[in-house]
Amino acid sequence: MVQGCFFNGESCKAVVERVTDWLASVQNQRKVIAVSHGLTGRIIRGVYKQLKKEEALKLDVSHKTFFKFSNQHIERISYE
């Protein structure tokens, strides 16, 4: 059974709150490297860009890809 975003786990609302708090805690850091699973990565990008839940959940999940966040812009960097 799906509850929120995650299967039998943390609700989407709880993840959004956790991600929002974390992003606020690192906003003044010069450089931060974060690693996440696909769905959480979508939520991180969605919160950063202030997307609606439905928009964030449609973001792609890519292997071999980094996302660079800077000045409200997200740059996709892929490698082979």
Blueprint of the fold:
Elements: E1 2-3, E2 6-7, H1 12-26, H2 38-48, H3 53-56, E3 65-70, E4 73-78
Helix pairs in contact: 1-2
- Counting helices, strands and paired strands, the structural category is alpha+beta
Shape assignment: globular
Low-confidence stretches: none
Oligomer: single chain
Total helix count? 3
Kindly state the number of beta strands: 4
Strand order in space, largest sheet: 1-2
Distance, first to last CA: 36 Å
Q: Helicity range of the residues? A: 25-40%
- The portion of residues forming beta strands comes to 15-25%
What average pLDDT do the residues reach?
Answer: 87
- Rg: 13 Å
What string gives the helices and strands in order?
Answer: EEHHHEE
How is the main sheet built? 2 strands, antiparallel
